[in-house]
Structure formats: structure tokens, C-alpha cells
Amino acid sequence: MKGSRIIAIGLTLMLVMSGIGWAQSEKPEKPKLVLAVGGGQGLIYLPFALTWRLGYFKEGGLDVDIENLAGGGQALRALIGGSADVVSGFYDHTIQMQAQGRSIKAFVMQQRYPGLVLLVSKSAREKGVQTLADLKGKRIGVTALGSSSHFFVNFLLTGVGLSVEDFSTLGVGLGTTAIAAIRSNQIDALSALEPTVTTLQNSGDIGIVLADTRTTSGTNKVFGGPYPSACMYTKEEFIKQYPNAVKALTTAMIKTLRWIQSHKPEEIAAAVPEEYYQGSKELYIQSVRNMIDSYSQDGMVSPADAKNALKVLSFDPAVKSKNINLSETYDMRFVESYWKSQKK
Hints:
Largest sheet: 5 strands, mixed
CATH topology of the largest domain: D-Maltodextrin-Binding Protein, domain 2
CATH class of the largest domain: Alpha Beta
Structural class: alpha/beta
CATH superfamily of the largest domain: Periplasmic binding protein-like II
Order of helices and strands: HEHHEHEHEEHEHEHEHEHEHHHHHHH
Helix content: 40-55%
Strand order of the largest sheet: 2-1-3-10-4
Radius of gyration: 21 Å
């Protein structure tokens, strides 16, 4: 009897420590969390915004404060600095951090394609910018320096033989500030996100699109396959210390991904604040329609897809010089546990 009790206690401890075997009814160890996001109104982070709006965080026993920052770089710094517990940001930051000796892990994916678009202003197009190589010596807007939109530019331009010193990048934010930068000719090109892209296309401010990763075909053309993008990531020690909280976050996000798959763009647009529309609900709905293919179907990242993200960071000497172990940049146990529970 005593031996059976010891075994039972041991099994319970193993389940808790594994972080994936607790009962769904168990409460998060750390219910109050600060979640940082690099530009929450951008459609790359639509699943994150919807998870909060639909009440799935609260349903999972979480009381979250959203820290909406200008770009992914700032959100990452908030995590490293300790002012945020978890980030909704791009997966490639986990690779960058491993190169710096930090263990940051993605635990649920929001996007399988980045949704980034490199476009040239109408003015720059009229002055002869028609290819990536033509951007030598030009000013290119990104959401924020050190963000994934910045990585995207560096990857594309170093891929055609330019160095990162051959062009300049400026942080222009999202939405109205990015649009203003294009219209005032502060920049010649923009690494843009939805709904900014659709807004600029509709107004005629775009001269040419040089790369488009909103769709399967566009992403395959740029990267040769899926590119794990927006995800939820945190420090490895947070996952170990608060596995119930991580599972609650994972479950909430997957519920949102399933909700997106079962609703029309009009219904999705109706679920976000009006300020996300940037002045036009119709254009926002079109932006959602343009992005719908980019969202993850199951919350997973595969080893093959992770290699594409590493390839993008090849421009960064700090990453290129390191032996990156991609299996240490993500932890899919929580996603796998969710889908196993659905088969019962």
C-alpha cells in the first residue's frame, strides 16, 4: 500500500515536471501575466488580438495585461529585461537569441507565412527602382530596427549581392506612420504588413511589389517553403516554472486558430476594435482576406520549416558563426498535448 502511494506521488510529480500531463481543470500557477506584442494592430498578430478579444485567455484562467510596442525588437527586449512574461513575436528571434547564448522557445505558432511585403513607392518606381538590386543607396522603412520586417529586408537584399551597408533602414512603425513615410517620400521602399499594404494599394501609392509573403505561392517563391513566423515565445525557465500557464496560453491560441478557420473575413473584422481598421472597415476586411492563408492551421512548427527561418538570418554574422540547434528554439509539447486531447 505504502509502495503504491509512493509510485502514485512519483508519477504525479513526473507529470507536473513534464509540463504536459496535468488535468485541464488545474489552474495556471501564474494567472496574472504581461504579454508583449510588437505592433498588435498588424494582421500578422491578428490571432493574438482575437484570443484576447474572444475571451480565451480569461477562459483559461489567465488575467493578462497586453503591452503593445512599436516592433518585434522592443517586445523581445521587454522579455529579456523582465517587464514581460511572454511575447507574441516572430519565431526568428528565438534563433537570434540562441546565438547570443539565451534560451528562448516558441511554444505555439500563430502563422505559417510571414505576411511581409516589400514594396516600392510610386515616386521611387518613377525614378527607376524596379528590382531588389536597385534599392542600393535607398532608404527602406521597417516597423522597427531589429524587427522581423528589418530581417526580411536584409535577407532579400543580401540575397542579390548587396551588403547591409549598401542601403539604409528607418523605423517607421505600423499603419498611419508607415503610410505617411511613403507618401512624404521619407523612404523609397517599405517592408510592410497588412492592413498597410492593402491601404497603399487602394490609394495608388505603391509603384511595384518586390516580394510578397502573404500567400502560399508568394512565400514559396521567397523562401522555398513555409516560414514559421508569428508565435508565442518565452524564456525556457518560464516554461519549466509555469507549465500550466503555458498550456493555458497554448490552448487559448489554438482555439483562436480554429475560430479563424470557421469564420468569414467580415466576421473576423467585426471582432477587433474599430481603430484597427485604419479608417476603412472595407479595406480591413480585404486585408484579412489577403492574409487568411498565412495563419497556422494547427499551431505547430516543423523542423523543415524552422530551417527556412535560420536561412533568413544568414545575413547576420552573429548567427552565421554559431552552430544553431533549432530543436532548442521551440517546444511543441503543449500543442501536441492539445491535439491528443481532442482525439479522446
